[in-house]
Amino acid sequence: MIKKVFSFVALSMLIWSCGEIEEPELSGDSWDEVKEAGHGSITALYVPADGFAYEDNQGRLTGVTVELIQDFAKYLADEHDIVLQVNFVEEEDWSTFYDKIVEGNDGLIGFGNVTITEERREELTFSPAYMTNIASLITHEDADELTNFNDMAEVFTGLDALAFEGTLHEDRLRELTEQYHADADIIMAHSNDEIIDKLSAGNDYFAYLDLYNFWRAEEGGAPLKRHEIGDEAEEQFGYIMPLETSWGEPITEYFEHDGGLVHSDRYREIMETHLGERLAGLLMDAHE
């Protein structure tokens, strides 16, 4: 399996390399080591996602969550005179990504748009939230509009639930089917792209997608419909670290400096650059 590894050094150039790496070391230096030496490195494990962690036309890794962690390195350079190297490692499977962070060592940070929950706090350290998510109920465009959950069994008759396994979207669909559409089977999917492809292929499924994934798919011509009655804006995404990490303090400091990262002009600039003004505005309004 080809693993992509990107390296970013504060106040330096972005270096890209791609090679076959059996098992990249998923750790880095501790915060105390970096403070004492004035330099060091961390490993950033990520799940590719349009707008958040993707390669641009020049093959460079970029996106909202990539730029925010690169800015963290710049912040340490400006405020603490520390040069931090961030080594980005790709993991395509979300469940594998999550488990690797849970089982990982100090100096490891991850981003795959992970929802902050109290249950997950028992096995992970979260950063402060970098975005509030809007989860949307999606079907093929030929499906009738759902305006009342009590009518779900009738409106979605013959449709099965398509769930991203291991995510809160799966939990949502299980609750919906148990309460309103017991005849629907729950079919497991393992990526947002798989869900979008299957929804687009015909009027056979309903699913939950994060709003930005729906938005991107619709912009790309996917024949999808959003049922606004199903919108939920209760989740917040955070970077994740192993439970025993030493990096919680500097990450929190970075998020909270100068009135808060998510309220800054720089944050708005990053969001609008990678998500577009309209979608960025919806997501920032949800966070407020």
Describe the structure.
By secondary structure, this protein is an alpha/beta fold. It folds into two domains: 3-132 and 235-287, 3-Layer(aba) Sandwich (D-Maltodextrin-Binding Protein, domain 2); 134-234, Periplasmic binding protein-like II (D-Maltodextrin-Binding Protein, domain 2), CATH 3.40.190. Helices cover 36% and strands 31% of the residues. The chain contains eleven helices and 13 strands. The protein has helices spanning 31-37, 64-80, 94-102, 118-121, 152-155, 168-180, 192-201, 211-219, 248-256, 265-275, 277-287, and strands spanning 3-9, 14-19, 39-46, 54-55, 61-62, 83-90, 108-115, 124-126, 131-140, 160-164, 186-189, 205-210, 224-242. Strands 1, 2, 3, 6, 7, 8, 9, 10, 11, 12 and 13 form an eleven-stranded mixed beta sheet that branches. A two-stranded antiparallel ribbon has the order 4-5. The longest helix is centred in the first third of the chain and has 17 residues, at 64-80. The radius of gyration is 20 Å and the shape is elongated.
